[in-house]
Amino acid sequence: MDELSNAVARARVRSELVTLFYIDLDGFKPVNDAFGHDIGDELLIAVAERLRACTRTGDVVARLGGDEFAVLIDAHTRPEHADAVAKRLASAFMLPFAIGEREVEVRASIGEAVFPNDANSAPGLLRFADTAMFGAKRRSPGRKDER
Q1: Could you tell me the pLDDT band of residue 100, with boundaries at 50, 70 and 90?
Q2: pLDDT tens per residue across span 54-91
């Protein structure tokens, strides 16, 4: 939240955009249930590493809790930069994750929010991205609710 608040404050002064992606893993709970929390923890680490590989220097990848992550595309970013990151984030879940000797498949629902277009504050941006993520989750074909 500190990084997001600082990015929004800078963007407000400079009249720039900030993009926030809210990412929730689809299929994480069955992995935890089937293989245990140690494998689940390793999967979360692998997801974070893959998300970091999708971003640029200066972007922020953070675990919000559970199986939720955020990616912050800071100020000085044109919309096409955020679009490119969005495509890389979505494609990061196309291949299975190698966890020990297992291949584990999870997908992700991704919501996006842009300051100042979608919200005028850091908390508002987070709420908008979260709501957008739930919209993406509802549109996901064949998905069962895990919550």
Answers
A1: confident
A2: 998 889 999 999 999 999 998 666 778 888 888 999 99
CATH number at residue 11: 3.30.70.270
Q: What is the DSSP string of 94-145?
A: SSPEEETTEEE--EEEEEEEEETTT-SSHHHHHHHHHHHHHHHHHHSTTPPP
Query: What would the two tokens of residue 60 be?
Result: 């922020």
Where do we find the tokens 């984030």?
A: 89
Could you list the residue range(s) of the whole structural domain that residue 87 is in? 2-139
pLDDT of residue 119: 96
Q: What is the mean pLDDT of residues 30-50?
A: 93
How far apart (Å, rounded) are the C-alpha atoms in residues 18 and 7?
Answer: 7
61 neighbors 48 (Cβ within 8 angstroms): yes
Tell me phi and psi for residue 27, to 5 degrees: 100, 10
What one-character DSSP code corresponds to residue 77? -
Nearest-angstrom CA–CA distance, 140 and 36? 26
- Active site members: 67
The total number of structural domains that make up the chain? 1
